[in-house]
């Protein structure tokens, strides 16, 4: 009988203990789980952590605060592209780039210049001028000297050329450079030299998409790098955009990333985002399981990057901050969630995945 009494007493104590742990005093509301406090990405990484931004978004306090807290490098989403700056042969509009560079300086951030030359960004007035090769190059040289010179010592690196190769590894035949020059690679070599001469301290990059995944494009890039070296032209790094997905094969990514690093150049993951809505479905739901898949992919990519030689790790840049402003909402699907922060700037599981991938 005494044993039965003690058994009942112990069960009563355990029951009360559980209730007191789960219930807020004075009501029946369950306590919320404690908030997860994560270190800023920039504080854990041994290389720069960047994000692409616009002037308009930086004028939103929540956006600006999230950016300043978690990142230490800035890329312009579009405001440093030629079409935005070069309004005529002799006139330039620097309001956007100046704002971005000043914002970075005020917040102890570095700036990566994106991009000097991109086939989609030559201004209409320039294309319509139908310059011969000599005048084409002289004008572009003046542009590079003007822009790079303006930000000498303020922009630490430039994408000198962006997306010159087609998916099969050939040069883009739809590019004005291809149509103007018998030797387009020679033109790009000289453009890298113009940038180096203007700011000898700036790191100079070639940037493209799918070099890690596409062996044909990667092979063409490596041949170009070898030609630069053989002929004495400067190139410091390679940027791979890394617009990728949760369904992309991780082993393929790792093989390609390692192969890029075999060049010995700096490696920049330059425009990272990770799609989740494979079928572009209007009824797609970003469930907990889908969020975890994305977090796992962010972690895997960061871990692969961390495995590169330390001296070659330049930066990882995500192409935006919050899902609500991602370019993929219009290009891919309005039901897409590719970045590290939700629309209310709360951290996603993707953020935790990225963070846990850092050494």
TrEMBL record:
Keywords: Carbohydrate metabolism, Glycosidase, Hydrolase, Polysaccharide degradation, Signal, Xylan degradation
GO BP terms in the entry: xylan catabolic process
Signal peptide stretch: 1-22
The keyword GTP-binding belongs to this UniProt entry's keyword annotation: no
Segments forming domain GH10: 35-357
E.C. number: 3.2.1.8
Pfam (any one): Glyco_hydro_10
Organism domain of life: Bacteria
Catalyzed reaction equations: Endohydrolysis of (1->4)-beta-D-xylosidic linkages in xylans
Entries under SUPFAM superfamilies matching the protein: (Trans)glycosidases
GO MF annotation, one: endo-1,4-beta-xylanase activity
Identification of the protein by name: Beta-xylanase
Native source species: Ginsengibacter hankyongi
């Amino acid at each position: 009988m005494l044993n039965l009494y003690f058994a009942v007493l112990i069960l009563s104590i355990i029951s009360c203990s559980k209730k007191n742990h789960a219930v807020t005093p004075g009501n029946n509301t369950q306590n919320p789980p404690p908030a997860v406090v994560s270190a800023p990405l920039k504080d854990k990484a041994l290389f720069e952590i960047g994000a692409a931004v616009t002037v308009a978004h930086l004028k939103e306090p929540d956006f600006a605060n999230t950016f300043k807290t978690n990142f230490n490098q800035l890329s312009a989403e579009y405001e440093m592209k030629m079409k935005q700056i070069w309004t005529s042969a002799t006139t330039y509009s620097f309001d956007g780039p100046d704002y971005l560079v000043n914002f970075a300086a005020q917040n102890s951030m570095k700036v990566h210049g994106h991009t000097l030359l991109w086939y989609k960004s030559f201004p209409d007035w320039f294309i319509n001028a139908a310059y011969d090769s000599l005048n084409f190059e002289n004008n572009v040289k003046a542009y590079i000297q003007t822009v790079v010179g303006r930000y000498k010592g303020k922009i630490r690196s430039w994408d000198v050329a962006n997306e010159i190769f087609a998916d099969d590894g050939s040069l883009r035949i739809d590019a004005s450079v291809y149509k103007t020059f018998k030797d387009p690679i020679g033109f790009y070599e000289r453009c890298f030299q113009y940038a180096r001469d203007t700011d000898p301290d700036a790191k100079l990059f070639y940037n493209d998409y799918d070099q890690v995944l596409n062996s044909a494009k990667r092979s063409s890039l490596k041949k170009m790098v070898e030609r630069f070296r053989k002929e004495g032209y400067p190139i410091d790094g390679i940027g791979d955009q890394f617009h990728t997905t949760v369904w992309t094969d991780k082993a393929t990514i790792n093989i390609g990333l390692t192969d890029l690093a075999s060049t010995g150049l700096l490696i920049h993951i330059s425009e990272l985002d990770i799609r989740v809505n494979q079928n572009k479905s209007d009824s797609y739901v970003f469930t907990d399981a889908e969020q975890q898949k994305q977090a796992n992919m962010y972690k895997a990519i960061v871990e692969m990057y961390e495995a590169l030689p330390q001296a070659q790790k330049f930066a990882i840049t995500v192409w935006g901050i919050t899902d609500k402003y991602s370019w993929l909402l219009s290009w891919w699907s309005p039901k897409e969630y590719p970045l590290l922060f939700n629309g209310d700037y709360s951290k996603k599981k993707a953020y935790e995945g990225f963070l846990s991938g850092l050494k």
